[in-house]
Write a structure and sequence with these properties.
Number of helices of chain A: 12
Number of strands of chain A: 10
Number of helices of chain B: 5
Mean pLDDT of chain B: 95
CATH architecture of the largest domain in chain A: 3-Layer(aba) Sandwich
Distance between the termini of chain A: 65 Å
Oligomer: heterotrimer
Largest sheet of chain A: 7 strands, mixed
Order of helices and strands of chain B: EHEHEHEHEH
Helix content of chain A: 40-55%
Strand order of the largest sheet of chain A: 6-2-1-7-8-10-9
Strand content of chain A: 15-25%
Distance between the termini of chain B: 15 Å
CATH superfamily of chain B: Response regulator
Largest sheet of chain B: 5 strands, parallel
Chains: A alpha/beta, B alpha/beta, C mainly alpha
Largest interface: A-C, 55 and 39 residues
Number of domains of chain A: 2
Helix content of chain B: 40-55%
Structural class of chain A: alpha/beta
CATH superfamily of the largest domain in chain A: Vaccinia Virus protein VP39
Number of strands of chain B: 5
Chain lengths: 281, 124, 210
Amino acid sequence: MNAPVPLAITEEEFQKFRDFFYRKTGIHFEENKRYFVDKRLIDRILATNNTSFRNYFVMLRFETSGKELQQLINIMTVNETYFFREEYQFTCLVNSVLNEIVTRKRPSEPIRIWSLPSSSGEEPYSLAIYLLEYWPRVDDYAIELIASDIDTTMLEKARQGRYDQRSVAHLPPPLLRKYFTALYDGSYQINDDLRQSVDFTQVNLSDLAQMRAYRDFDVVFCRNLLIYFDDTSRRIAAETLFNALNPGGFICLGHSESMSRITPLFKVRKFPEAIIYQKPR
Amino acid sequence: MKKILVIDDAATVRMYYRQVLEAEGFAVEEAGNGYEGLEKALTEAFDLYIVDINMPKMDGYTLLRTIRQEPTICATPAIMISTEGQIQDANAAYAAGANLYFNKPVRPESLITTARLLTGEHRA
Amino acid sequence: MTLIKKHDATGDAPREFRHQSRDRAGLLCQLEADAPEQRRWAALDLAAFSDAADALCDRLEQETQTPVREAILTSLIQIGGNPVVCGLMPLLRSEDAALRNQVIEALQQLPEAVSPYIERMLADDDADYRIFAINVLANLRHPQAPAWLQDVIERDDNINACAAAVDGLAEIGTPEAIPALTALPERFADDPFMQFCTQTAIRRIQGHGA
């Protein structure tokens, strides 16, 4: 067998891919990302046994399952989870969003917040810590924190609440000391009060019937999930999230996700800290 | 430097407006549909919006009506440019909040002249 | 610590609209209810009934509320098939730009069902309608899409229909389209925009600068 011809992505191919990826995801690669994008494209061209960008692009563009696009999105975006990731959204929650929500609440009415996918629990626990530390009115309201994932192994991990150094690296040290116990193996155990403040449940967002029971939420954190869905699943998921929210309720997406590629169901709300989406009242 | 937001779902149209307007010293940003246009308009200040009508997720009329109700951006001028050439299409554009309506394809000199006029950029 | 853990994650007892049952007849009735939320739930639940396509399309034509329209289209996409496409195509002539574009997006999700109608749509007398058909095509996962777009630039005499097809070809065009793209600007008095977009499409198809 001959040695494979080294693949390279031409300028025009890069631009063609860039326009397509932007249309599908809303993610726009600047010219300075060229190396990053080319390298990952070449990896996928080889992994799918294609011999050129041209063949690969035809497959990507016309594949009905959308699987290859999902693969690409996966490697073109950084999907990791750690405490206080994308903290500006939590700041927006305590500085702006919750204050707007409570204007519509009776004092006895709980505030319901939903985190999904909860993954190994960093996001819902971050929310709990953030509310306790930074929302001045936290003692005036009952807050229900529900966290869901499709993956039961992840849910079990989340319930246990044990994290490695990398997961907690962005937490201010006083909060780490306050809410965690350092274990001998170098990991950190989240305290029982926090563990008991989050309700973990298993859900499948594409299952309209199951999701029918999830409702009356005031805020949903659904970060870095919808971007990985194919067009139809994403559409159904958007419907279920809309159903789950109270009128006037808010939804936060991940920083690389844009509602402009998902659904027109929600209003755009600009707060000082972030753009957040709202179910019309 | 005056900043223009071009909102059109056709990549070649966005590229064309960018090329024409950048050559005249305007800074150009792009959005691929009305919803993304609204997000960008709310995030960053522009001197002019150039808006297509038929786009996914949010059409141009809905976008302009929304912009005209947003206190921070309602005064920004907007040119609507679309394929529909009936008089009622122009009227609908003005009713939604457009300052000018053009039929596609728009001549580059018309685009430049009106962009200068609406942004107050009176260069030679 | 006032964060409370509630053992029922799913909110207060379901206060759904139980005036009608969730069978087909009940849902069809609820689809015409006064409250938009009821119509929306009915539309979502009707996804389970493939013969509800006509009723959903009829409702869509009159419906003004975005959340109900979206729900109807989500269900129609799940139902799929030719009756759905036949019900949606006339709505491309709607005066309502938001509805037209929602329908274009839905049709894009139904490549197999829409394909038998493409040629008829591209031969329509109304240039606006043809442009909407081209918009459907340009984002359709169908192997014949490049050839259909090439037909447009060879035959259609509306400059905007051709420009829309060229924009699609910039993404999915094959080298066979290059002669037609090269010849296109001449048909439109060398309009500068047409020159620009055909050159862009040709470069994208070749994969390198001219």
